[in-house]
Amino acid sequence: MELWVIWLVIIIALVFLEAITVGLVSIWFIASAVVALILSFFTSNFYIQFAVFAILGIILLITTRPILTKIMIPKKTKTNLDRVIGMTGIVTEEISKNNIGEVKVDGKRWSAKANEKINVGEAVNIRSIDGVKLIVEKEGI
């Protein structure tokens, strides 16, 4: 069997692998396999072709993957809701493990829930937001 056919089969297999995964790992080896395929028309030494395939694939993976993943992964834009996370609020309606209460934070009243009972007037830290409810805990915990 001709070596170029082997490289063509490797390229097809790597394209299929990249299509079923989204990790941007095999894409670099697809490029290096194309180079090895072209190289197979100039030399019949499989070891040279494989060395070029492996070394070029690793170099491409190490040098370009971090840059490309930075570009492709969208940045999370904080909304106005996110800014209350980490703030301190005051409980205006009692919160218990099974009942939703109310917290005033940043001049606004929010529905809130917690894993413990928190009485009216106590200060709470806002830990996260679940839908339209704040997840809070007593301040100082």
Largest sheet, in brief, is: 5 strands, mixed, barrel
The run of helices and strands is: HHHEEEEE
Quaternary structure state of the chains depicted: single chain
Number of alpha- plus pi-helical segments = 3
Number of strands: 5
Q: Which strand order spans the largest sheet, edge to edge or round the barrel?
A: 1-2-3-5-4
Q: What percentage of amino acids are in beta strands? A: 15-25%
Task: Briefly note the structural class of the backbone.
Answer: alpha+beta
Mean residue pLDDT: 87
Radius of gyration: 28 Å
| Helical amount | 40-55%
Intertermini distance: 70 Å
Form type: rod-shaped
Unreliable stretches: none
Task: Indicate the topology.
Blueprint: H1 3-20, H2 26-39, H3 46-72, E1 88-93, E2 101-105, E3 108-113, E4 123-130, E5 133-138
Helix pairs in contact: 1-2, 2-3
Descriptive overview:
- The protein is α+β, with helices and mostly antiparallel strands and 141 residues long.
- 42% of the residues lie in helices and 22% in strands.
- The protein has 3 helices and 5 strands, in the order αααβββββ.
- It has a 5-stranded mixed barrel.
- The model has no long low-confidence stretch (mean pLDDT 87).
In brief, what are we looking at here?
The protein has 141 residues and is an alpha+beta fold.
Structural descriptors:
5-stranded mixed beta barrel; 22% strand; 141 residues; alpha+beta; 3 helices
